[in-house]
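[Automated response] Your request has been received and processed.

Submitted sequence:
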Amino acid sequence: MGPDSTTATAAATAEKKTREQAVLEKLTAVYSSATPEDRALVAGLVERAKRKVRESAVVRLTPGAAAILFFDHNKQNRTWRYAVTEEYADIIVRDEWEFTNQGIGFLDDGDLGDGQHRVSGAALAGKTVEVGVTFGLTRGSIISIDTGHRRQASDFLDIGHLADSAVNKRKQSMVKQAFSTLKRIALDDEAARPYVLRPGNRDLYNAIKANDVLLNEAIAIGDDSVHGRSATTFKANEAAALAFLFLLKGWPKAKVIADLDVFQSGEDREGGNSPLFVAADQLQKDAQKREGATTTARFAAAIKAFVLHEQGVKAVRVSDIRNAMKAKTEVNAAYPGTAKVFTMAS
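Generated structure:
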């Protein structure tokens, strides 16, 4: 890890702590403003839990009561993650909260055994939500909660009969790779916003459904780009994700197919150091190293090459491509159209 990556890691850690502190301050404010009715509601729930009777109820949980549960009756839960709380809060604020079988659960000593992120999300959102409440949990019960694999967005697509399981998992990976790259190369937070996938499945699920036609086209393009070739710059899945990224940014399908064909071949069809050849050559060399670049960095290099090619550039330096792989380097993935032929190589 070099100095640049160390600095980036430190900055990310500092940003995380700042966001976490901001969420805690908001939750504390809600807790401090809790009404006597909020406290009475919590007291009733805790008293009912201590009866050690296995039963359930549906409760309208106010923000103040939710904050009290989070701070005062949340001693036995797993590690709290502020980002999950933010996700629940956002769902509630957008009126997308659904009543499900996953509510909150009380241990028989009155502590919250399950649901700390739901109650903290309700408190952070500042809106009353209807939740199912289960009483009579033991410490043995909470060990069994969520021991299985967490559902992925692709699982919900399977339930909705959108393609088959293998294809759905592939689309999920494609969206993650494309969105991560577009978020990385965005000029600012506002430009990155459409490509932020918040923790959980909702954003990813919606992105897959909204772009299903493009994803299907990209899969076909990616598969065709490796067909009949023993070695390619990207394997089929990554090629499909890159094709999806370009289609999402408005590139003509024919251009994506043609440029990807050249890129995957690893051949220089321009008679010099053409952008697509230089990028393919560098990425193929990187793939042979023990520590290759990240997917987003490799995609950024490919995007730079594709754009330069469409701008009519016939020759580039290796540094022109490798610089695109660095964090904070400006790379615009929008289709540029074809310009006059010129060279960037000295």
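Summary generated for your ticket: Confidence is low (pLDDT under 50) at residues 339-346. The CA atoms of residues 282 and 288 lie 10 Å apart.
If you did not submit this request, please reply to this message.
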